[in-house]
Structure formats: C-alpha cells, structure tokens
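Continuing the batch. This is chain 6 of the set; chains 1 through 5 are on the previous pages. Same settings as before, nothing changed between runs. Recording input and output for traceability.
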Amino acid sequence: MGNFQEKASFIWDLADLLRGSYKRNEYQKVILTFTVLKRFDAILQYCKWDILKNYNEYKDKLDDLSPVLNNVASMKTVTN
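Output for chain 6:
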C-alpha cells in the first residue's frame, strides 16, 4: 500500500464492512452518534470506574447526582 489511493480504498472497504446493514443514506445518523460516544469514553477514561462507583453508592440517596459525579470527574482530571 504505497500510494494514497490504495490506502483510501482500503479504509473505505473496511468502513463498508463495519457499517453492516446500514444503507448509505443512514450513515450520518450512526456515525455522529458513535463519534460522540467515543469522545465521551476518551474523556472519561481516567475516571470512569470512580464515577461508576460513586454513582452506585449515591444513586438511591440523592435525586441529583450531577454535583457528585462532576466533582469526581474534575478531581481525576486535575490529578491525571
């Protein structure tokens, strides 16, 4: 795969395999959603388990968990 066209063709062939049963006009509905989910996952990579632990600890005790979970995420971001 020396030239650009071969690499681009290879990537598009893989993308067609990954898309599976989605029609070409449905790609936009799926790609943006998965891009946003991947970005969230990347942002939370260092604090995901701490957030889940705190969520499970406080989910039945508090109506609004946002302050607790945001605090955990902020603390982990500062330390990492």
